[in-house]
Design a protein that fits this description.
single chain, alpha/beta, Rossmann fold, Helicase, Ruva Protein, domain 3, 4 domains, 5-stranded parallel beta sheet, elongated, binds adenosine-5'-triphosphate, phosphoprotein, Sigma_54_int
């Protein structure tokens, strides 16, 4: 491996002549960055600059060698200590090595050569360690969320880089996106790639819990706190201690609970209903909504102060129809998943089937694509999934179509396409049915606005 950065060496030696001797010789190699110290205290003050190697005179006037050594190892056990000493006895050497020194060099005529040899070893070790840590980083990137969250589009790559940022800290994350875009998947990816991964990931869907139970569900209650509270109950926040709570559909939270949540977040502690004991909050919060919370704030349905508390690092998931060819990548992924689970030979999508998928706007996003693919796998008679095996149920639903927020012209084109398919590209019949001029349809076909199947 190419040496990427110089080896940072701290020389700690009180004898002026020897200090100069070591520093001079070490500086002969351009790949060394050498700093020299005449006493232990000055050196300890600079330890935070994290040298790779320390050459340590074990008998400093102001500090015991073993004390200096402990300081170094307590600070960072990866710093290699090379003890350079006048004492030649084996016992001292063994003792020093036991304390974690990398090697022991005696001050004599061979010191220079020994020093260089040992440093070469250390340099190789440091380089290998760096290489390993880089590789580990690469591997964890490859095998974690980017394996579960399929996609290669610019839009999703932006999401990946935000997920990486979120994994590095405890910052609150707010995930937005239409239904089925993968908000929960992103929340899980963040949790399982963060330092909290060994602690629980607790998902709570605000809309799935009856209004009068939600407070107790989130914060817990003591026995007898209210009618029906027959037993103490630990809330979801407490359950997530050390881990992550995922509050899905946060935009649906009613105002009373918003106020309570705000208090808990501000004070970083919670109380179970019916108790006066406070419990410190050690939970990472990820919220999700399909709504535009800023708009809800404007409308007065979501508290502004809570909005700012929860915004943290915002991650927006684009709808599937804006992710280009990702539709096909994800479709392939689901085909393989389905076939493996059902232990059947892996099927393939025909190019017409692919085109059909690419043209559909998927109002239900990835969740809908998954359902479409599973059904197609069932319908396909052999290993090829044909266009006719693919059917979109949601295309019958007017509400879903309107949700797509296309322009009037785009709606017009999609309607004409649907009719053209139904009436087997009979322009006259379609024009009659839709009460538009046939030349309009021909023009739209010519301009490529309407695709014939
Ligand atoms: N990029 C992706 N690659 C592979 N699978 C995905 C991807 N995005 C979402 N999924 C899958 O799609 C389904 C829906 O995802 P998820 O439940 O995370 O969406 P959501 O946005 O939280 O939905 P809702 O708003 O309805 O709660 C899940 O089965 C999830 O594993």
């Amino acid at each position: 491996m190419e040496n990427s950065k110089p080896l940072k060496i701290f020389v700690v030696e009180d004898d002026e002549w020897y200090n100069n001797f070591l520093t001079y010789n070490l500086e002969l190699n351009e790949d060394n960055e050498v700093h020299s110290f005449k006493n232990g205290k000055d050196f300890i003050k600079k330890l935070h600059e994290r040298p790779d190697v320390v050459t340590l005179d074990y008998s400093l006037p102001d500090m015991d060698g073993d004390k200096v050594m402990r300081h170094i190892k307590d600070f960072d056990s990866n710093i290699q200590v090379l003890v350079v000493s006048g004492q030649e006895d084996i016992e001292t050497a063994v003792e020093i090595l036991k304390q974690g020194a990398y090697d022991y060099v005696v001050k004599n005529n061979d010191t220079r050569e020994r020093l260089f040899a040992v440093l070469n070893h250390i340099r190789k070790n440091v380089e290998l360690k760096e290489e390993i840590s880089e590789l580990k980083k690469e591997i964890s990137k490859k095998y974690d969320f980017s394996k579960a969250i399929v996609g290669n589009s610019t839009a999703i790559k932006k999401v990946f880089s935000l997920i990486e940022k979120a994994c590095e800290s405890k910052i609150t994350v707010s995930v937005t996106g239409e239904t089925g875009t993968g908000k929960e998947l992103v929340a899980k990816a963040i949790h399982y790639n963060s330092k909290r991964k060994k602690k629980p990931f607790v998902p709570v869907n605000i809309t799935a819990i009856p209004k009068d139970l939600i407070e107790s569900e989130l914060f817990g209650h003591e026995k007898g706190a209210f009618t029906g509270a027959q037993q103490r109950r630990i809330g979801k926040f407490e359950e997530a201690t050390g881990g992550t709570i995922f509050l899905d559909e946060i935009g649906e939270m009613d105002p009373n609970l918003q106020a309570k949540l705000l208090r808990v977040l501000q004070e970083r502690e919670l109380t179970r209903i019916g108790s006066n004991k406070t419990i410190p909050l050690d939970v990472r919060i990820i919220v999700a909504t399909h709504r535009n919370l800023a708009d809800e704030v404007k409308k007065g349905t979501f508290r502004e102060d809570l909005y700012y508390r929860l915004l943290g690092l915002p991650i927006h998931l684009p709808p599937l129809r804006e992710r280009g060819n990702d539709i096909l990548l994800i479709a392939d992924f689901f085909v393989k998943e389905y076939c493996k689970e059902n232990e059947i030979p892996i099927k393939k999508l025909s190019s017409k089937a692919k085109n059909k998928l690419l043209k559909f706007p998927f109002p239900g996003n990835v969740r809908e694509l998954k359902a479409v693919i599973e059904l197609a796998c069932v319908m396909a008679n052999d290993e090829m999934i044909e266009e006719s095996d693919i059917s979109f149920n949601s295309s019958n639903n007017m509400q879903d179509i309107l949700m797509k927020e296309m322009t009037l012209k785009e709606y017009q084109a999609r309607i004409i396409e649907t009719f053209m398919e139904k009436y087997e590209n009979n322009v006259l019949q379609v024009a009659k049915k839709l009460d538009v001029g046939k030349s309009t349809i021909y023009r739209m076909i010519q301009n490529g606005e309407v695709q014939q199947k």
